[in-house]
Every structure is written in structure tokens, then in C-alpha cells.
User: Fold this.
Amino acid sequence: MAISIAHLGPPGTYTEAAALTLVEHLSQTSGREALLCPYPSIPQTLRSVAAREADLAVVPVENSIHGSVAITLDSLWELDQLKIQYALVLPIAHALLSRGSAFEKLKTVYSHPQALGQCQRWLEAFLPEVQQMATNSTTEALQYLDEDLTAAAIASERAAKLYNLPILASEIADYPDNCTRFWVVGLQDDGRGDRISLAFSTPTNTPGALVNPLQVFAQRGINLSRIESRPTKRLLGEYIFFIELEGDITQEPVQASLAALQEHAEVLKILGNYSVLPRTQSSHQA
Amino acid sequence: MAISIAHLGPPGTYTEAAALTLVEHLSQTSGREALLCPYPSIPQTLRSVAAREADLAVVPVENSIHGSVAITLDSLWELDQLKIQYALVLPIAHALLSRGSAFEKLKTVYSHPQALGQCQRWLEAFLPEVQQMATNSTTEALQYLDEDLTAAAIASERAAKLYNLPILASEIADYPDNCTRFWVVGLQDDGRGDRISLAFSTPTNTPGALVNPLQVFAQRGINLSRIESRPTKRLLGEYIFFIELEGDITQEPVQASLAALQEHAEVLKILGNYSVLPRTQSSHQA
Assistant:
């Protein structure tokens, strides 16, 4: 039976491109076919797996320019039965799409907040008077272009081809090497790979509450590749830490660190032990 | 001469309410008068101080529900001549404003992305079909209400009074005790207070690169009250850490920690040594 893969839609989003990379990987490694299922938001994408409507979900985690995708971290903390099975990194190339012919006539630019954030300086330099409007996905932004020649959208060149929309400008991100990291999430934990992601909350107002939990890894020579904090939403100054470390859950120093971490953490959730899929410059990007 | 205070405008924003709290504090402690200067964005607010157009800027740093205000951290890292002079915390109470009379007829809700983020569950529960549109400030969202009875905005009750707009629903944030922390930033560093904020980038791909810099404080018994990471924007996996610690820059252990931190950091910037203004439930909130 085909594997169903949930992602932020409609078709044409960067997350769909990431899902297509996963489809290729699954086809090459296990010969399994896959079916893509677009959802209108990241929380709904993740909930579809928790509710067993889809087998896997592909969600963006962080971008090299704009940083963390907070809604992904917050949703994963809540839906704690989900486990990360793979990570993958995708190069991101933003274009400005419009049916209008000139920059001077543009009044509004629509896109996902992450894409607007990644092109902030470009927009300030070339479209300073244009109103920026956030949409649920880069593809959703395209619906505003058909009847309005003063509207533009930021999306991929792939989306431009898919919906037959003219490109007014290419490569408009503020910094080169724009990349987004995605997680592939499912209900089962394969428990294989060289990365471990976990999240924990700490008791408040305890001296060292933020640093002591991080030291359990340093003391055992385990390298952290990422530390991200999110608010607990209960009280200003209370945080949940999302940590990524290099290691395998079966290694003794990793197990000892996690046991020690349990002493410092209020709530500790292992988000997954997984591997990073090899980077592709696949045709989905073009 | 009056002190000029830049803030995100137009008048009626939560940042203006925070600026009014500062005005009260300055008037009580030094008898100095102040002049509020609204700016259309957070980067422009901060740049006004760097360019000596305004004496101080008030900017939001983090919210108890939605987390960090990334653009504030990114802008302060860039404009490194600015120094934090005070922190202040403001309770935030969001209301739904509209000239339309019924939820069922609403098609669009406008607000700042932070305010939309703080009311996400409420919006999903009560206005699931309504399109969410991001604006540059909560006050900017109000301009859409006058001619469109299907439009609503999320802003404060204070803004509703100021612009004479009807309130359709009150207290619509997803969690109680919603608070935002603000920084007051100027060109001079008073170097007084019990908080120190700093930011640093680390060399990449070095084992312990993320944890070693944090340990310099733990080793000397200095408590960190916040750790936040932002991307360097150069390469995925390279971060700038924003750290807040309890201490005074004149204390010996603090100076020793900062000297040790210098060894681990690629670039280190002291953002300020400041105090937290007492919390007020002032009339500006109502």
C-alpha cells in the first residue's frame, strides 16, 4: 500500500518540494510508492498523523535566514506521540510572481510570513511602498494574482510553472545559500540514526536551571548542534528547550546524559532518533 | 529639553502603551518631559536612535505566548552602537474590534503577526473560516475596518477607545497572564542595573561550541535567565546566542565570565547593563 505523506499545501509549496524529495528516497530505498496529502496549516499537517489520517508529515523546522518555525516546535511539544524519522535540507529560491508588468504598479505582495521575512531587505529596497500581506502558504498567496494586476506573490519558480504565472524577479532572498530544514514525522520511532532531538521544560527560578541541563551533555563529550527556546505560554520567563545532539540512543554516554537530564527537567520528551537524508539539488527546486 | 521616545506606531499600539509607562517613570524619577515619536516598523524605530533622530526607542522583545520578537534581536545585533537602558513588562489584553455586528459575517481579521499568533486557538475555534492578514502593527490593522463590515482587527481596548471602534469580543488571547517584555534602547550605556544582556556568535563545527560559552557563567555561579538563538543568516546551523544574566558589569565574577566568554565567541556584543522597571497595571492598558 502507498505511504500517505501530509504537507503544507496547496501543491507548489516548498514543503511539497521537500515531500517529493522524501518520496524519491522512499522509492529508492524501499520501493514503496507514496501519496501526497496537502493540508492548509502546519498544525493540521501534524494532527493528520496523530489522527492516523496520514502515515507521515513533512514540516519545516528552521530557515537559515529567518530562523525557527515556532508553530512546528509548539505543535510537536503538544502532540507528543509524534516521532521524527528523518531530517532533510532543501535550498530555497524565492521569486516574485505577478500578472502585472511593472514594479511601479504593485500595491500588495502576498506570501507566507517566513518567505516575507526571508526577503525583507529586498522588499524594503525595491518595493518600499508596497503592503505586505501574510498568507497560510506561499501557494495560497497565488490566488490573489489572477484578478489583480497590482498584486504580487513570493513563491518558488516551480510554483510559477505549476500555475503558469509570470516571474517579475528571481533570487530575491536577502542572503545567499538560503536553506530550510524539514522534519519527517510519524507515529513510530525507528530509533535509528545519528541525530537525536529532544525537548524539556525546566523548573523556574532555580539558579542554573537553564545551563545545568545543557551541561549533562558537555560533561560526557556529546556535541549539541542546536539549542532553541520557546515559551511555556504559562509565565513570562519560563521556557521549553529544544535540543539537537549528535548521537544514537543506544550509545552509553547518550543514555547516561538522558538519565541525568531527567533529574534537571520538569518534563522531558524525546522527539526522535533519526538520520539526515542526503542533500539533493533535485528538479523539484527548479 | 524633552526626551524623544521612538516606538512602533501609529498611536494605540501596545508598544506605545509601554512607552507611556516609560514616560511616567522618567517624569517621576527625573522630572523630565517626553515626546512620543511613532515609526512604522521595529527596524525603523531602532534606526531612529542610531541616526540620532530620537533619544530612546521602546521595542518588544518577547511575549509569554508567542515567544521572541525575532526582528528586534536581529536589528539589535546589526545596530551594535545601541545599548539597552531598561526592561519593562506589560500585561497584554487583546480584543476583537469590528464595525460589523456578527461573527458570522466576518471574512478577514487583520493584526500584527504577534497578536494573531497569541490568539491562534481562539481564531481557530471561533472564526475558523476567516482569513488572517498580517499588518505592521495592531493599530495599522484598524484602517481596514471603516469601509468593510466583514473586516475585524485584533488590538487593545485602549486602541478601540482611541479610534472609537466597537469591541466584538474581549480577552481573546489563548492563555491567561499574557505579557510582553520590552527593552528601552539608547545610544549611551548607563551601565547600571541587575541585568546584563549580551549576544555572541560561535565558531562552527567545533565540539562543544554551543555549550562551552554557556558554561563560563555556570562555573562562576552566575544565573542565566534567558537563552535565545537566532540564525547568523550565513549558513544553516550557525547561530547567534542572545543571553540574559543576573548581575552587574562591575562585579568580579561577571567580568571574569565575560573575559572567558571572549575566548569561546567569534563576535561578542554587550547589549546593555540595565534594570527592570517595576510592573504597573497602569491606565494605559485599559
